[in-house]
């Protein structure tokens, strides 16, 4: 139990795994810790924690919050959420959910203008909880507009799409699926320069992002348990 994954999503935002399935896979992989980090909602956390009862894997309740900084979209991850704060988070994020819905509608409109036959009501129905960029990508792929998610990304670059960056206020992801060696080194340099704790995660979404696997990301990635231990230690200070 030397590895962890501190960035995953469930069916309560834009993933395809239930919280229980994430725990099941984490347990099968002998992970030391796994975090559920759904977008703008804590609704899956209670089931996530309950599914881990009696298991060896440690659960980390988190939420990925949509906000803005200097007019640009920004995602901030809140970690180690106490369950008595879930309702407060849900209330606070109601506005963020409305903003996300408007962003998705704008993205769909851009795609429709470019000739792609997708519509927001269908995306919303398939998403069950909330439509996100991952659902748009999957819809384009399922309709045969591109043979791979890489080609779907090319389509979105061509028609234009909102940015969805991820940052941490007290830590920064130094290990992440989308990082190449140069980016990972730069993230580690930033962490050292500004005294930020290292964090890491696959950003696993299940079938909505099939190129990303739990723990290993695009392949070969590994987040040591020491990353979780450092964040936990800071949380208790």
Describe this structure as you would to a colleague:
The protein has 237 residues and is an alpha/beta fold. The protein has 2 domains: 4-91 and 163-236, Metal-dependent hydrolases (TIM Barrel), CATH 3.20.20.140; 95-159. Helices cover 42% and strands 19% of the residues. The chain has helices spanning 19-28, 45-51, 86-92, 94-113, 120-127, 133-142, 149-159, 181-194, 225-236; strands at 4-8, 33-39, 58-69, 72-79, 166-167, 171-176, 197-201. The strands form 2 sheets. The protein has a 5-stranded mixed beta sheet with strand order 1-2-3-4-5, with helices on both faces. A two-stranded parallel sheet has the order 6-7. Helix 1 (19-28) runs parallel beside helix 2 (45-51) and helix 6 packs across helix 7 (149-159). Mean pLDDT is 87; it is low at 163-169.
Name of the top-level CATH class of the largest domain: Alpha Beta
Q: Indicate the proportion of strand residues.
A: 15-25%
CATH topology of the largest domain: TIM Barrel
Radius of gyration: 18 Å
Count of the separate structural domains: 2
Number of helices: 9
Identify the overall geometry: globular
Structural class: alpha/beta
Q: Point out poorly predicted stretches.
A: 163-169
Give the mean pLDDT.
Answer: 87
Largest beta sheet: strand ordering: 1-2-3-4-5
Q: How do the strands and helices of this protein lay out in sequence?
A:
Layout: E1 4-8, H1 19-28, E2 33-39, H2 45-51, E3 58-69, E4 72-79, H3 86-92, H4 94-113, H5 120-127, H6 133-142, H7 149-159, E5 166-167, E6 171-176, H8 181-194, E7 197-201, H9 225-236
Parallel strand pairs: 1-2, 2-3, 4-5, 6-7
Antiparallel strand pairs: 3-4
Helix pairs in contact: 1-2, 6-7
